[in-house]
Amino acid sequence: MVASKSEDNGGVREFQFQQKRVETNWQAFKRLIYDPSTNAVFGRTGKNWGQLLTFYAIFYLVLAALFAICMQGLFATLSDTEPKWRLERSLIGTNPGLGFRPISERTEEGSLIWYNMTNSTQVVRWVKLIDEFLEPYNKPQTGENYVNCDFDKPPEAGKVCVTDASKLGNCNRNRSYGYSTSSPCFFLKLNRIFDWTPDYYTEVVSDMPQDLQMHIKAAKSEEEKKQIWVSCNGQSPMDEENVKGFNYYPQGFAGYYYPYRNVKNYLSPIIAVEILNVTPNVIVSIECRAWAKNIEYSGSALTRAGSVQFEVQVDADTVSTKLVTTTEETPATTLPTITTSS
């Protein structure tokens, strides 16, 4: 009880304060869990808990219903078989990229194909990488919706063309894809863009390589010219000196594979390219380009488009040459000769 002076009632007014409860920490903890004086659990009575749980149950049910309505509205605009945004309206755009295989599983090697043709372990490594890439193409492609296509016989709706990996010329497994020689093979493939249709070069243009111009002129019919042509070359004059040429199996992506419509069992067409007689112990930069009127080309390292660039080094000595960076001066006669191109 606290007393204080006041002008009324004799100058004295009394204030009643609740007396502080005296209890141990354990007693206070038990009262927090359950207070027998009010029948409260964790500070709330049964009525309070009922009101709280009812409110949150209704709140979350309404929230879940709104979320379900929004998701249903979103899914109603999407398709399981084709994208909503295509070509110019999509992030991918209309310019397909050109990719190559094999690619080393060792990230530090980047785009370098490097092997010693006298080292069976290294040869088997690259053969295995190509086997994994070609696995879908080597599976039986009969029945279901597979059809044999030709330039005058494109697939019907819902059908896909057979992609026969046995027609890749010298780039076959019996020859270890050329990796037991100085003429290794690599494989080219265009990225898929839904509903994209190529605009073909049916006539030669001045900036085409001479061998490609001759190949187009030798086509048997106008229909056979409806291909996305491919050409490869050394990236610099020095690189061209270290490669004797290229064989293509075939030299174009046939037009009857396009447009891509996400049909079941579809396989992108591939081109096998054989590099002829790479100069041993030299890093050679190779650039390959896809030719179509609606494929933009850029050979810049920063803005590359419509092309792909990679390096090849074929070692011919019995012990694989290793690229070593050192700050020590070493007599030139003690090192193997390695020529690199920019």
Automatic annotation (TrEMBL):
Gene3D superfamilies: Na, k-atpase alpha subunit. Keywords: Cell membrane, Disulfide bond, Glycoprotein, Ion transport, Membrane, Potassium, Potassium transport, Signal-anchor, Sodium, Sodium transport, Sodium/potassium transport, Transmembrane, Transmembrane helix, Transport. This is Sodium/potassium-transporting ATPase subunit beta-1. GO terms for biological process: intracellular potassium ion homeostasis; intracellular sodium ion homeostasis; potassium ion import across plasma membrane; sodium ion export across plasma membrane. Coiled coil: none annotated. This is the non-catalytic component of the active enzyme, which catalyzes the hydrolysis of ATP coupled with the exchange of Na(+) and K(+) ions across the plasma membrane. The beta subunit regulates, through assembly of alpha/beta heterodimers, the number of sodium pumps transported to the plasma membrane. Its main location: membrane. GO terms for molecular function: ATPase activator activity. GO terms for cellular component: sodium:potassium-exchanging ATPase complex. PANTHER family: AT04468P-RELATED, SODIUM/POTASSIUM-DEPENDENT ATPASE BETA SUBUNIT. It comes from the Eukaryota. Belongs to the X(+)/potassium ATPases subunit beta family. The chain crosses the membrane at residues 53-78. It is found in: Cell membrane. It is a single-pass type II membrane protein. InterPro entries: Na/K_ATPase_sub_beta, Na/K_ATPase_sub_beta_sf.
